[in-house]
Amino acid sequence: MALFAEGEKVVNHKKNKIHPHKFTMWIGIGSIVMMFAGLTSAYIVKRQQPGWLGFEIPSAFWYSTGMILGSSLTMQLALKAFRERNLRNYRNMLSVTVLLGIGFIIFQLFGFSTIWKTGVTFNGSGAGQFLYVIAGLHLLHVIGGIIALIAMNIRAFNRQVRNYNVTPVEVVATYWHFVDFLWIYLFIFFIIMR
Fold this sequence. Notes:
The protein has helices at residues 2-15, 20-46, 59-83, 87-117, 126-157, 167-193. 80% of the residues lie in helices and 0% in strands. The chain starts with a helix and ends with a helix. By secondary structure, it is an all-alpha fold.
């Protein structure tokens, strides 16, 4: 009886361990959070300097925000479909997530083009320098997420692959929700601090 109890403890101990891919992703997310916290803090400090040129929030940012929020919903639906082994729904929701992510990037580019035309450039005011660096870094993280989503999409449509390991889908879903949340934070930050 004691041996069975010990074996049970070992099994329970293994169940409580975090998957190495998830652990690595959380370490990466922590690093990204610290980087953006430092950049937004520097923005707050630097905006007190003379010659700081503010900017208006372009309407394209509102559309891109709607798209990224929608993509978070479709990503969650894709994860749910994968867990239920509903491959058709998984493929559809994953494809819509990719399209919404690409739409987010397109509207972001329109928005920053509008800001650039108002005279807030990278070489001009301090606002432009920080704005383009912060948003550019976020855009790079979104592009990385889209690449992962496209790779998952290709895998989902590959008829030879029949692997129902949910961990990669959970990792990408968590990362995608994170970049969505990060944009919401940055969007609110820019609205308040512009």
